[in-house]
Amino acid sequence: MTNAHVESHLETLGPIAFRLLAEMDGALDQDAIARQSLNQLQALLRSLPVWSGQAYEHAAASKSVPSPARGALAPWQLKQVAAFVDAHLDQRILVEHLAQRARLSASHFCRAFKATTGETPHAYVMRRRLERAQTLILASDDSLSQIADACGLSDQAHLTRLFRRHLGITPHQWRRRRSLPVAV
Predict the structure, then answer these.
(1) How crowded is residue 78: how many other Cβ atoms within 10 Å of its Cβ?
(2) Residue percentage of the chain with pLDDT more than 90
(3) Domain 75-179 sits in CATH 1.10.600.10
(4) Which DSSP category does 103 fall into?
(5) What are phi and psi of 108, to 5 degrees?
(6) What is the pTM assigned to this prediction?
(7) How far apart are CA 102 and CA 63, in angstroms?
């Protein structure tokens, strides 16, 4: 492919190509472990005809690599917490238990969890309980009080309040609507 071909393709892609190259360049800059081989790759990228002068400065200026949210949970912490919640939905789950999994204090964990997921730990646990209840309602003929107990809710009334608050109907109505045959 000739330089004219490359330049015409890059003109078609415009800012997208420059941004991609800038992000690749930025990623190369951040990797200190393999610095020597990455420097060679950087040099190769910069030797491309389009990667010189004004185009390079434009790409570097528009570089917007999102940094992780400050104070957010690390992916391993979020995985640990989610696994713990799913394994213990039928039991009482305290914020302290979740914070221990993430190796943080309870107050710092609550802030970091909200920053990461957009919801409080309590809201997350209740949402997971509701999802588990929906699964059990569809997959079994258990009574609603048995399902409430299996989801860590105090009783059938608690399950019903949760359903009404989030879905606008009772669990019994929800079960009936899901079990009706679909007309074709």
Answers:
(1) 17
(2) 53
(3) no
(4) T
(5) -65, -40
(6) 0.60
(7) 32
How many other β-carbons are positioned within 10 Å of the β-carbon of residue 93?
Answer: 21
> Looking up tokens 């491309």, which residue turns up?
48
Tokens coding 25: 């360049």
Three-class secondary structure of residue 96 per DSSP: helix
Token match 């204090």: residue? 105
Q: Are 101 and 112 a contacting pair, CB within 8 Å?
A: no
Say which residue the tokens 């009706």 belong to: 180
Q: Give the pLDDT confidence of 138-163 residue by residue, as tens digits.
A: 998 899 999 999 999 999 999 999 99
Amino acid at 27: A
Q: What is the pLDDT of residues 112-121, one digit of tens each?
A: 999 999 999 9
Q: In the chain, where does the domain assigned CATH 1.10.10.60 lie?
A: 75-179
pLDDT digits (tens, 9 = 90+) for 119-131: 999 999 999 999 9
Q: Cβ of 22: how many Cβ atoms within 10 Å?
A: 23
Higher per-residue pLDDT: 37 or 170: 170
In three-state secondary structure terms, 6 is helix
